[in-house]
Specification:
The protein has 64 residues and is of the alpha+beta class. It is built from one helix and four strands; from the N terminus they run E-E-E-E-H. It is flat and about 35 Å long. The chain starts with 5 loop residues before the first strand and ends in an 8-residue tail after the last helix. 0% of the residues are buried.
């Protein structure tokens, strides 16, 4: 499976492995943690868009 993972330029850690990585693959959005790459979450563009909208509005700020 050839997946092109992307991570934020704001990723931290010595090797940049303190981050979430995203990929677009076969019409799905895939997400994984860089330090645990074998666990992959699959979602849709619509669900990711809804989540990111809430994050931009501060709905999850209390978790960070």
């Amino acid at each position: 499976m050839d997946i092109q993972w992307r991570k934020s330029s704001k990723s931290s850690g010595a090797e940049g492995n303190n981050c979430l990585e995203l990929a677009d693959h076969n019409g799905e959005i895939l997400m994984r943690e860089s330090d645990n790459p074998d666990v992959i979450i699959r979602t849709t563009r619509a669900k990711l868009r809804a989540f990111l909208g809430g994050a931009k509005e501060g709905e999850f700020d209390d978790l960070a």
